[in-house]
Amino acid sequence: MRPVSFELLRGLIAATALAVAINPVQVKGQDERRPTVIDGATAPVLPASITRDDRGRATVRAIRISEPIVLDGRLEESVYQEYEPFGDFIQVVPVAGNPSSEQTDVWIAFDDDNLYITCRCWDSADPDDWVINEYRRDSDGLRNNEHFGVMLDTFYDRRNGLVFYANPLGARADYAVVGEGSPNKDWNPVWDVEGGTFDGGWVVEMAIPFKSLRYTSGENRMWGIQLRRSILHKNEWTYLNPVPPVLAGPQAMNRISAGGTLVELNLPPAGSNLELKPYAIGGLSTNRLTSPAINNDATGDIGLDVKYGITANLTADITLNTDFAQVEVDEQQVNLTRFSLFFPEKRDFFLEGRGVFDFGQGGSGGFRGGGGGGSRGGGDRPTLFYSRRIGLERGQVVPIQAGGRVTGKVGPFNVGLVNIQTGNVEPKGVESTNYSVIRIQRDILTRSSIGALFTNRSIAAGGDGTNQAYGMDASFGFGQNFEAGAYWSQTETTSRDGDNQSWQVAMSYNGDTYGADASHLKVGDAFNPEVGFLRRSDFQKSSGSLRFSPRPTSIEAIRKLSWQANADYFQDGSGRLQSRLQTARFDIEMENSDRWAIEGIREFERLDKPFQVSNELAIGQGSYTFTSQR
Predict the structure, then answer these.
(1) Predicted confidence band at 502 (pLDDT cuts at 50, 70, 90)?
(2) For the domain that residue 146 is a member of, what is the CATH number?
(3) Which pLDDT tens digit goes with each residue over 503-529?
């Protein structure tokens, strides 16, 4: 069995002591800061189950039941006869703001163990016209089926949410959203769902155990909620709460602040939520061709993973002698560029709360996207913390002796702490190394935050000295469409001199008819985040984009037209042009959701040295300009 270093054990003990110290303060603070004001319509009064304000925002009432609901797709329990459902979903596609073309009935109930969400979806079309063909869990194809989904904002902070959806066959998908960012689709909680059909429509019944959720317990709690129904054979997307037309389609579920409110929840104590996952592995090997021969040589190892809910929204993970044998394999990627590829994290130990470590994401607005961050990286923006750096060195798998993580929320602060000790690999000259990360982020205003991040590697990749990276970032959201953000970061690497800073400013406006964004990114020649991911170094990138996308009312067959122009301009540290990308695009979106597009692309690349694509193909040093159309 691999030894565990004293330094790491000391760090784990300190982190655990800090978490325990936080615990009583956090529990008290949660109750004092619990939301008491509804962001939307006033609470419904019995027997009503829903109210809406003058902006269409919904507040719905949860039903307390004494007997569990049997998930069978039949709706035979008494709750369905005793309580009126609610519905009146609102289109975002094809006609934003119009009532749904089909009736949708929803019940939300709870008992001591589960939250139940049931949807009865009426459909006037022939069942043969329904699009229902997906059985796989977490498949992207599920969104291209008739389906029903729910988003739960369990702390009612209007920033973070959990999404569940399913089709009439009972196929399901789920993901977590942090800070209204990109979804973490590797989040896979325990929950149950059953689907079914009836004469005139279809049914989805969900049961989500409270043990699978993080929340603040107590009487008469409020959660944020959004519901979605896709009537795919009509290319229609409908929601409980109105959403901006620019978010047409499934991505509206990730705009947590656009959700409604769920009231009158009496929530049980969250409990300690302790999970233990021990493992043991053994084997025998024989090789009589070696000298000396190996005959029935026994090997073995043991390890343990622990997950502990310190508070309702603060979780600790501890791993000893980590085994990643069951980790999902990476999707294959073919690299035809001169830059490194980004592979997302798949190891369970690093997945929970990984969005907390996203750094410098503000300002993209979802208009053109961008790289960076712990869970959404691979673009030109550096990633300060990339967990796949831990356990891999020079293409060699390195054993993880032990490690600990604490992620979650303490009052208005999102926090993330990581401390990992890797072992040595003597034949490869890899020394035992400690990795540590601290992330703190403060929610401000409505859709804004400021934060800081620090990473440390006890032995630099070059083998001499240490490596640290640190920085500050800010993200601001104003109204529904405008976003701005900035970050500054710096690295310190022993025996490495030069410009060791990176920074970016970005802003975007993403309205339905008009869109624009602009950003400037700089990465110094000595900027070296060795616990992160850096696609390219020593460059500046200026980007801009403009979009005009009207909805013509005079042409019935056309839903939307769009003209868009983008430009990316790369310079090296001395200001010399390295790359340039210019695109112009025209789109026609039909009322049946078909799309027609034409795009022209003009590119420039300068190679300062030959680029070896393969053993048989190399691109020589020089400047290249090329165009393409599609």
Answers:
(1) very high
(2) 2.60.40.1190
(3) 999 999 999 899 999 999 999 999 999
pLDDT band at 10 (very low <50, low <70, confident <90, very high): very low
H or E segment and range at residue 75: none
For residues 525 and 596, state if they share a domain: no
Give the range of the structural domain holding residue 355, as residue numbers without chain letter: 1-33+272-279+302-513+521-534
Residue 274 dihedral angles phi and psi, to the nearest 5°: -95, 130
Q: Is residue 297 one of the residues assigned to a domain?
A: no
Residue 369 burial (CB < 10 Å; 0-12/13-18/19+)? exposed
What global pTM score does this model have?
0.81
Residue whose pair of structure tokens reads 């209204």 in the numeric block: 180
What the block records as the tokens of 123 is: 């459909």
CA distances from 261 to 57, 59, 61, 80, 224 (A): 8, 5, 9, 21, 5
Helix, strand, coil % (nearest 5) of the chain? Answer: 10, 45, 45
Count of other CB atoms within 10 angstroms of residue 55: 9
Q: What is the sign of the dihedral through the CA atoms of 243, 413, 344 and 486?
A: positive
Q: For the residues of 296-334, what is the DSSP string, one character each?
A: EEEEEEEEEEEEEEEETTEEEEEEES---TTPPPPPP--
The answer to the question of residue 542 being in a domain is: no
Residues 473, 429: one domain?
yes
Q: What is the DSSP letter of 86?
A: B
